[in-house]
Design brief:
Alpha-Beta Plaits; alpha/beta; about 35% helix; Rossmann fold; 11 helices
Length: about 325
C-alpha cells in the first residue's frame, strides 16, 4: 500500500529527513514513532501530497505521489496534526462540503456522510457549529472527513494530541475499529497509543529510520534486568565485592549494580542482560559459590526504554521478520 524509497527533505539548510525507506502492506496498522522534530509529520505530509521531497520517492498503491497527487489522494484519508476545520460550519455542512470537494457521486453522498457520522460518534452534534465542539469531538470530525470517501489508507498525525484521558480512550478504540479494514499509519510520540493499537512500529530519529519491528519484540528483544537477593548458604557474612565478581562472570550478564537486600546477612543486586535469559547460569553460579538465592525477579526492557535508547542515537535492532514486499 505504501512504499518509501530514500526519502529526503530539507527546509533550507536544515535536513528533516535523511534517506528514509520502508514499506507498509495492505491491512497493516503501523505506529510511526519519534520524538518531536524527528521527521514524522514531514513524512506524513509528503505521503499525503502536501509537501514535495528534496529527493527520493513515496508511492501509494504503486503510484508515485509526486507524479500524480490527485490519484494518490483519492486512495488516502489524512488527519493532520493541527486538524484544520471550518469552525463556523455545522458538522453536517462541513462533511457535505468535504464530499463535494472530494467529488463523491451525489446519489451516494448522504449514505457516505451517515456512515462516517455513525462510525465516529457524531450523531448528537450534527447540527452544532464545529467551533462549539470539544477537542475530542473536533478530532472525531477530522476522522469523519478522513474516512468519508472510504479510502484504503489512513494517515493519522498525532490524533490524540491535547485530549483528556476519556477522549484518548475513545479515539484509540475508533482507530482500532478502522484498523480492521484499512491500512493505517499512526504518527505519534505516545508509546501506550502504539502498544494498544499497532501491530508494527517504525521509529524515526533525527530524520533517519532507527527501528522497524513489532512492539513486543522491540520491548523484549533488547534483554532486561534480573533483581536478586542473596545470602550465604553457610551462614557466614558476605563480602559485597566478591559476590558482585561472581555475578559479573555469569554468562549473558552485561552489568551488575548493588541494590537493596532484605536485612542482615543479605545482599541485593540488579543484573542487566542482553538477549539470553541468564537465570539458569545464575543459579548454577550461586550453588558453586555457596550462595542462596532468596529472590530472583526478571523484568523485560520496556518499549519506553527501547525508544529512549534508540532516539538517543544508538544503533537500531534488526527486525525479526523479513521486510514486506511491494503489493503494487
Amino acid at each position: 500500500m505504501v512504499r518509501i524509497e530514500g526519502l529526503a527533505k530539507s527546509y533550507g539548510s536544515t535536513p528533516a529527513l535523511r534517506g528514509v525507506s520502508f514499506e507498509v502492506p495492505r491491512g497493516q496498522v503501523v505506529g510511526f514513532l519519534g520524538p518531536n522534530g524527528a521527521g514524522k509529520s514531514t513524512t506524513m505530509k509528503i505521503l499525503a501530497g502536501y509537501l514535495a521531497p528534496t529527493s527520493g520517492a513515496a508511492y501509494v498503491g504503486g503510484i508515485d505521489v509526486a507524479a500524480d497527487r490527485v490519484a494518490t489522494r483519492r486512495m488516502l484519508g489524512y488527519l493532520p496534526e493541527n486538524n484544520p476545520l471550518y469552525e463556523e460550519m455545522m458538522v453536517l455542512e462541513f462533511l457535505e462540503f468535504v464530499s463535494e470537494v472530494r467529488r463523491l457521486p451525489k446519489e451516494g453522498r448522504s449514505g457516505r456522510i451517515k456512515n462516517a457520522v455513525e462510525r465516529c460518534g457524531l450523531t448528537t452534534v450534527m447540527g452544532k457549529d464545529i467551533g462549539q465542539l470539544s477537542k475530542g469531538f473536533r478530532q472525531r470530525v477530522g476522522l469523519a472527513q478522513a474516512i468519508l470517501h472510504d479510502p484504503d489508507l489512513l494517515l493519522l498525525d498525532e490524533p490524540t494530541s491535547g485530549l483528556d484521558p476519556n477522549q484518548i480512550a475513545e479515539i484509540r478504540e475508533l482507530i482500532k475499529q478502522l484498523g480492521k479494514e484499512k491500512t493505517v499509519i499512526l504518527s505519534t510520540h505516545i508509546l501506550p497509543e502504539v502498544q494498544s493499537t499497532c501491530g508494527r512500529v517504525l521509529i524515526i530519529n533525527d530524520g533517519k529510520l532507527v527501528a522497524d519491528d513489532a512492539p513486543e519484540r522491540l520491548a523484549h528483544g533488547e534483554g532486561g534486568t534480573v533483581s536478586v537477593v542473596l545470602a550465604s548458604r553457610l551462614g557466614s557474612s558476605l563480602e559485597p565485592a566478591q559476590v558482585q565478581s561472581v555475578l559479573e562472570r555469569v554468562p549473558g550478564v552485561t552489568s551488575v549494580q548493588a541494590a537493596q537486600g532484605e536485612g542482615a546477612g543479605t545482599l541485593g543486586f540488579t543484573l542487566r542482560y542482553g538477549t539470553e535469559d541468564p537465570r539458569r547460569e545464575l543459579f548454577e553460579a550461586a550453588v558453586r559459590s555457596e550462595l542462596a538465592l532468596l529472590e530472583v525477579r526478571r523484568q523485560h526492557v520496556s518499549l519506553e526504554e527501547t525508544f529512549r535508547r534508540l532516539t538517543a542515537g544508538e544503533a537500531a535492532p534488526r527486525a525479526s521478520d523479513p521486510k514486506p514486499q511491494p503489493t503494487a
